[in-house]
Amino acid sequence: MASTNRLPFSRSFALLASMALIAGPVAGVSEQAYAQTQNSGAAAGAQAPATTDNQTPPAASPKITGNPAMNAGPESVADLASGLLDAVVNISTSQKVKDEGDGPATPKVPDNSPYQDYFNDFFNNKKDDNSNRKVSSLGSGFVIDPAGYIVTNNHVIEGADDIEVIFPNGTKLKAKLIGTDTKTDLSVLKVEPKHPLTAVKFGDSSKMRIGDWVMAIGNPFGLGGSVTIGIVSARGRNINAGPYDNFIQTDAAINKGNSGGPLFNMKGEVIGINTAIISPSGGSIGIGFAVPSELAEGVVNQLRDFGETRRGWLGVRIQPVTDDVASSLGLADAKGALVAGVIKGGPVDNGSIKAGDVILKFDGKDVDEMRDLPRVVAESPVGKEVDVVIYRDGKEQTVKVTLGRLEDSDQAAAASTDKNKKPQLAPDDNGNGGVINPDDGDEGSDDGMDGQDQGEDPQQSPQAQPQAQTSATVLGMKLATLSAENRKSFGIADSVDGVVITEVAAGSAAAEKGLKPGDVVVEVAQEFVQTPNAASEKVASLKREGRRNAQMMIASPNGDLRFIAVALE
């Protein structure tokens, strides 16, 4: 959103002149309509026209509850804006990029043409040193500390060779990048001012309600110091921009160049950082998104203090709780985050949380959806002991967990070997990909087993395991004991244990869930199964209990894990 293309002055002037000619009559019509409405209201109070038998009396107007002054909206934001404009800055960046090719050919013009030089200047790029050219872009930012700390979006300054901050009074200062966080698209800059700067402070975005008035200030299309006003249109928006999406949606006009600018409440506090828009044209259509201050403030403070983020880490792999999964577990509602695996060496590798648990609350905060958990964990301090409410074995339990540091999980990934590499969580039944909480790049070395099954040796030879029954048909699946032969035929990794699916009946409950030959059933209803007979008996017991679905942990041949709920026939 930071980049901008400026029109030539002559075209801009002509455009503005045309808009002025059009705007005049329209404005006049609006004022006239407003006056007519007011006059009609006044006349109505004097005497209402009589109704005939063929006329329907007008319906009574609904009563408006609440404070009439608040319903009318702010009379003006001029006083509010005047105290905030000096704290909002323009961010100008430049970057050298290497040209590819020689560019378009110079058009041929008649000899001695007075326009020859202009064509040469525009089309000829062969004289650039090292075939490089400088690309500039514009964005917005705001001062959070009189000493010169400035907040903006990461995408505004990403890849920049030079960053310049332009203040409302025209002062230009070179900026140094202090720290950046790509997951929330936030960056902190530092300038060295000669005098203390005007700064603004963060407010509490959690107190903002849908319909509250907000004001945005920024640098749209290079027009610095632009003020727009609107309301909070929605909260908690997920636009798939990152793992911690929790955007405030607003209809305050946000355009290219507004990125990194502040979204204020009516107290002049920053409750959001304008980041993205949805628009088919590239201009504002009244759907803008801002990173809420409840998420941004902690990230900004860490970047300013440490130059990096220090997020909490739980060390689990999670997936959504679907209606079928909730039914199979006995949960009244499809809520929470289903634990698909525990990362070996992580904070909960001590057994406090196990694969198959459903996390319902974290540190007193409800986990209504899977995506809620990574955010609340990341916002928690490293080393903090928290209470986690889980659903296990048909009842809620509370366990205590001491959080690790997310950034340390990368080191654990590097230490793991290929042989012990943790299976990655595969997409669920709805096609949604699970995440490693909370960093998509986390690696570990866990087989996804829990409880007594963690002591099993995944390298144990299939021939040494019970051979009472080598095959069985369950819910449309033909299951077989893992052997060297079927491991080789299906390409099943040595680290995967359970019973292999060799056939799936068309139209069966298993086929509807996307199960296919080569998949391995690891658990049924949170119990590890190592023989087809064990899987068959567990499914039969679930039917006797009146269950409608059987929850299964499924491993792909390469070890990717997922939970599914298969309907009991």
Terminal CA distance reads 53 Å
Helix content: 10-25%
Largest pleated sheet: 7 strands, antiparallel
Radius of gyration: 31 Å
- The total strand number stands at 29
The order of strands across the largest sheet is 5-4-1-2-3-7-6
Mean pLDDT: 76
Shape: elongated
Distinct helical segment count: 12
Strand content: 25-35%
Low-confidence stretches: 1-52, 413-468
The secondary-structure class comes to alpha+beta
Which terms summarize this structure?
single chain, 569 residues, alpha+beta, 7-stranded antiparallel beta sheet, 29 strands, elongated, disordered N terminus
Please explain how this structure is put together.
The chain has 569 residues and is of the alpha+beta class. The chain is 21% helix and 29% strand. The protein contains 12 helices and 29 strands. Strands 5-4-1-2-3-7-6 form a 7-stranded antiparallel β-sheet. Strands 15, 16, 17, 18, 19, 20 and 22 form a 7-stranded antiparallel β-sheet that branches. The longest helix is centred in the N-terminal third of the chain and has 38 residues, at 9-46. The protein starts with 8 loop residues before the first helix and ends with a strand. The model is unreliable at 1-52 and 413-468 (pLDDT under 50).
